[in-house]
Amino acid sequence: MPSELAAETAQLVDDYLQHHLGGSALPATRTAQTLRRVADELGSREQPFFRSACSPAALPEPGGAAAHLSRVAAQMEADGGLNWGRVVALVVFTGTLAAALAERGAPRDEVAALAQALVAYLAGEKREWLEAHGGWEVFNFLAIQRAEWEDKPEDLGDDI
């Protein structure tokens, strides 16, 4: 049986991917709404980077998207550790990669495997980090507080 953190992570990742891929459903939770907002802002601000990282030349071979995401996550962490901004960047990267795969005509199960890989990384490999940093509840709180304090929610910095 999956943990509460794993279930919440899966729900947030699935919600964001549906949103990013053109789904019109309302976010299921306030945290999902916050993640959508923060991820959309980061994705817009850094659109050239995410697009080039998921360009046709950069796309993995069919069936290799989940392994590609795992390598990107490992490299991102090796380049400076994990923080909430990097977690959001991984969510945005996953959404951008999922959209590129869909454009290429990849089967739905490859996009589903990509979502599962991100959930396994965050709620599995990085479960202790997420728990030590208060989980998604604290992410939501920090993102909202930062938006109110600075009136610039797109600037996540290193604290969130």
Automatic annotation (TrEMBL):
This protein's name: Uncharacterized protein
Lineage summary: Eukaryota, Metazoa, Chordata, Craniata, Vertebrata
